[in-house]
Specification:
This protein is an alpha+beta fold. The protein has one domain: Ribosomal protein S10 (Alpha-Beta Plaits), CATH 3.30.70.600. It has 2 helices and 4 strands. Strands 2-3-1-4 form a 4-stranded antiparallel β-sheet.
Amino acid sequence: MYKIYLNLKSFDLDSLKQIENYLFSIFSFFNLNQIQQKMNPKECKKITVLRSPHIDKKSREQFQIINHKRTLILTVSDINVVILFIKIIKNSKFIGVELDILLEYFAF
């Protein structure tokens, strides 16, 4: 029994959802039905910048960077499906999304 953890991380929520739909189409191709989804909390980083170098300290702008995270957990029993799935994922281009893959093996 193999467990594949796919950790998705992106600044843009739309690109994250697009990649998620692409991954679900791959899952349906391999007939993988045992999929768990985790919605990880967003990370929000705020940055404050002074607008002018003069004495007006009240003149500030704030920017924020939000990281969206998702985790998909697959349970697969066949090693050939796992190898083929990882090769497809490795050759795919995910623009704007960082993908981490963790593979666990359970022996009974």
